[in-house]
Amino acid sequence: MDKPHILQVGPYPEWDQAPLDAAYHAHRYFEASDKAAFLAEHGPKIRGIATRGELGANAAMIAACPNLEIISVYGVGYDAVDLDACRARGIRVTNTPDVLTNDVADLGVGMMLAQSRGIIGAEAWVRDGSWAAKGLYPLQRKVWGKRAGVLGLGRIGFEVAKRLAGFDMEIAYSSRAPKPEAEARGWAFIADPVALAARSDFLFVSLAASAATRHIVNARVIEALGPEGMLINISRASNIDENALLDALESGRLGSAALDVFEGEPKLNPRFLSLPNVLLQPHHASGTFETRKAMGQLVRDNLAAHFAGKPLPTPVL
Ligand code: 8YV
Description:
The protein is α/β, with parallel strands linked by helices. The protein has helices at about 15-25, 35-40, 60-65, 85-90, 100-115, 120-125, 130-135, 155-165, 180-185, 195-200, 220-225, 240-250, 290-305; strands at about 5-10, 25-30, 45-50, 70-75, 90-95, 145-150, 170-175, 190, 200-205, 230-235, 255-260, 280. The chain binds 2-keto-D-gluconic acid. 2-keto-D-gluconic acid binds near residues 52, 74 and 286. The site of 2-keto-D-gluconic acid has 11 residues, from loops.
């Protein structure tokens, strides 16, 4: 029986590409110069889509594939997949949760430390000779014992909070409802993001992005976090009103930020590039060999299960 035809929306490392090509006719959408023509030519053959969290599959792409059965997302975030279009046609959707949870939490905490303790600037201070020429590096700010807020206590947010407890921080969280496992650890439930920000020195944004969470971190939340506060985003840029964030960072109404995701990434708003009080990371919170290999395996496991008529390992729809 011939291999199923799938649409590959973005590039994968070679260790993923080889087994994908062995199992499927993988039509590389990201290499097409004329993407509309590419979809018109190959869309009718396509039974599966292999995509990345930040790339997803929009309604037009889904509509161009009338025989589409499954969309397998390389990433935990599936907000860029048009779920309504999938529901309307009974198209399955899968993602890669759990395997990346700890890496994303690690990077979020690492971003907080790096920004608060000035690690990036201090490294430059040594390398460019400033230490010898100018003396001691400017004093920074501690993190241990301070107040942390976690907006979204899902798998990633929970792992962030666990790590922060190791810094003896006072932890509060916002979620749809109080979580017994959080209450058991003495973490305070604060439903309102503004109230959570007001009692936080560090505010982590770790909730799954959707239309309902768009700009949940708005000007009022940012104002409440304040000139001593730091905003850390390891979720999606859409969860933050980026213009309000930039205004607050430029005016000093927000102390600092550490961001792994941006509107329009990788072409982020140039206003970020001139800010001294923001740490910029290239959407690589899950970007380790170990985790990306596990994610790629899970993408293939979901596709293979579907085409074998077996239960999907990590279904979303
Ligand atoms: C992925 C992400 O690594 O998991 C997600 O949703 O945003 C990242 O962790 C990325 O989407 C892979 O391209």
